[in-house]
């Protein structure tokens, strides 16, 4: 029997906290996938600054209580922003939207305490949009012994089928998302048991160190195309010291932006600090990619904003083991690398609605395949 095709709208706001990625897709939640549109909506400066300031105040679960009123108010503002852009897209889309996948804005993540707090009021968004909304995707995975991340691998596995069919790619391949944090999905094969096809993990920082340095030392939000780092000089002594003082001992654990800090670059010029932090980030990312290339991987495809940072990508390639294929943009295979995660959360919302698992032992280290997400219908 042919499965029902849903139209889903996915919303993603990443660790850069600069705006909302919105994608509209069609899928049955299993093997069918059609992309409809992608749009980016930038936060105004006040909202972005408020999000960053709040995240910087939250170091323990007690801080969630301490700043509960501020969290509540900002969550409302954030949700209203999402509601406005969603209604704008729905108004201009001629078809029916069945469901919304609302990732929200992560402001606190503590696996040991089994807490992952994303700003975003699913009930309010459902009321505003008059649509079913799925949010809080990570909590059930944490409750089931998982790391709460990464959640996109099951979508990576889906699109890999199209890469194999349309572009004759050979498996295994890696899909590497360089956002604030970098994660990797290794698709080993395309059979019908999806959870056995995948290995996945967070592997290092992505843009988080670079973005923080740029924001704190200039009026810019990011190092566009890596031009700032390119204009600076890497401080070899500081870089080598940072490599010795920090290492990722296990790829079994999820990572958060608060796991990394930029203090070791203090005292460097703006350009030199950016170059050194970018080189350090590249070193850690490359180590993770090297770790996941014990099989004969045919392609290392990159998505996320970090793929546009030429200095970062060139530096990662320099640190890769000689026999490993160089990084290649996922855009070369028919997908926009800026919107993989927003498309994914549209797909995950469908799977959640159908009570299908979105995380697996080989992706988040949960005890068993886990159905995540809370369904909100407030209309």
What does this structure look like?
The chain is globular. It has 13 helices and twelve strands. The chain folds into two domains: 6-146 and 339-376, ATPase, nucleotide binding domain (Nucleotidyltransferase, domain 5, 2-Layer Sandwich), CATH 3.30.420.40; 153-333, 2-Layer Sandwich (Nucleotidyltransferase, domain 5). The two termini are 31 Å apart. The protein has helices at residues 45-57, 61-66, 68-92, 122-129, 139-143, 153-167, 208-217, 227-231, 236-245, 270-291, 310-319, 340-353, 361-364; strands spanning 6-13, 19-27, 33-42, 99-110, 115-119, 132-135, 173-178, 181-187, 198-205, 299-303, 327-329, 374-376. Strands 1, 2, 3, 4, 5, 6 and 12 form a seven-stranded mixed β-sheet that branches. A five-stranded mixed β-sheet has the order 9-8-7-10-11, with helices on both faces. By secondary structure, the chain is an alpha/beta fold. The mean pLDDT is 94. Helices cover 39% and strands 21% of the residues.
